[in-house]
Write a structure and sequence with these properties.
Low-confidence stretches: none
Shape: extended
Mean pLDDT: 72
Structural class: mainly alpha
Order of helices and strands: H
Oligomer: single chain
Largest sheet: none
Distance between the termini: 19 Å
């Protein structure tokens, strides 16, 4: 896995953990769910 992919996965894991801790996420997001599932309505970069 590339460093960029590893960094992305690391950030995604932190966002998911934070969302669960805040009670905003009750189940893991499905792959390809797109931006917005964690309360972030900014478009994905790139």
């Amino acid at each position: 896995m590339s460093r960029i992919a590893q960094a992305f996965v690391g950030v995604l894991e932190q966002v998911v953990a934070d969302g669960i801790a805040r009670g905003r996420i009750h189940e893991p997001p499905q792959a390809g769910a797109g931006p917005g599932w964690a309360g972030d309505d900014r478009p994905e970069p790139g």
